[in-house]
């Protein structure tokens, strides 16, 4: 029976030699994980039944079977986390599948030098994520209270006729909203710049909606950092210090990690 190759990630061959792959980690269909060597790179894989896991069958499951998708996506993530504990790993995307071993080996051979460089960048470094949230109502009250231009505008409007007040208040509301967004951006950029001092690489990602985060506050910033393991404590100290200084103004900082380097490695 034909077997497809499901790939979880790539690790340095020397690391796999020093610590052979555990047979206790189940693969996509329950069988133990396997490894395939290609020069200085080892692929961690799982065999798949080709009859039940064709491209069309997998596409149908991903689009129409949410329970299956959640179970398998969670399995993929947990497997990479287990591998990350023991190896420097380039994690591959969910459902990265090759028709056969030779196709996978060809792809690795083509990218051998690039993969070696990526391993060098990742070794001794950790990926961390920082999400910054802001309660706009709390921050708005705080900002208005200490914003001289807004206070001056309010005083001017109070002396106008009722008709003029209506239009001027609308203009003031627009000014307040503009100032809020500008100040939020400034605060987030300043925090990001401070943390960049401890980062090998960093990237700003798209903010998540409240539906995705499940939080009452809006996400104001979403960033990822690749940090030297020796600098992680200082990185976290700065985050705690920044949150302490901002929490009464409606801010909350959420740092998570270390994670496999999803954002700082690629095999695509």
Automatic annotation (TrEMBL):
Signal peptide coordinates: none
A GO CC annotation given for this chain: gas vesicle
InterPro entries in UniProt: GvpL/GvpF (IPR009430)
Pfam families membership: GvpL_GvpF
Coiled coil regions in record: 45-72
Location, primary (coarse class): other
Coiled coil keyword on record: yes
Cell membrane recorded as keyword: no
GO biological process: gas vesicle organization
Keywords: Coiled coil, Gas vesicle
Cellular compartments annotated: Gas vesicle
Recorded family membership: Belongs to the gas vesicle GvpF/GvpL family.
Protein name per Swiss-Prot or TrEMBL: Gas vesicle protein GvpL/GvpF
Species assigned in the record: Falsibacillus pallidus
